[in-house]
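Continuing the batch. This is chain 6 of the set; chains 1 through 5 are on the previous pages. Same settings as before, nothing changed between runs. Recording input and output for traceability.
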Amino acid sequence: MIDIQNQRDYRNIPIDKVGIKNLRYPITVLDRKNGFQHTIASISMYVDLPERYKGTHMSRFVEMLHLFRLEISLKRFSEILQQMKECLNAASAHVEVTFPYFLEKESPVSKVPGLMDYTCRFVGSSDHEGKVDIISEVVVPVTSVCPCSKEISDFGAHNQRGEVRVSTRFRKFIWIEDLIETVESCASCEVYSVLKRVDEKWVTERGFENPKFVEDIVRDVAGKLKEDDNITWFAVSVENFESIHNHSAYAYIAHKKDRTARP
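Output for chain 6:
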């Protein structure tokens, strides 16, 4: 059969990225406690296309994904990217994998277990020189109590749920759980999937005793990431879905560490 994709294109215009976008697919990811975890991901895969080719072979992306589905992890991203370049005769490759990650978490007082889900994202690319860039990202729900509201009110203080998004580059493998724990330790209080009345009392009082602005949370998370010698770059954003305002409160910090710093 005629291979239309390999036919000559005469417009002389290369394409930076071409491939498949937002394919929902079952995958297996590494789990610090249980070894592996099954989940459903939204996956995008792209390669470059030289000006001489009419198109890329879209079916090959899904074929490769099927081979790697039993372990989509940061450890295997370099291998996946290299296989994409070889299979599609490309100079560069790019992969984005977004998925819910579940952790069993006990309520703080009653110790009732429940599953918390966190949105995670792995982004990887390999350029024409073979340089690989990998970013791990996690979105963590938190609660915050407003320090100003607590200070100026005769009683009570407004509180809200927020999201902390952390993106990192690193020297060696980093667990999703480590990033989640770092973020949760910096909030007014953690979020739980199951709360009995004794737990509601605890999280309410915990938050009230630990009020934080978005500025406080983003600085606290950034401070801990700076102390981690394994992390070479990070970006942290905090968005509070304000309970008494018609807008969100937002803060963002990005930091690239000095390459001369100790490994």
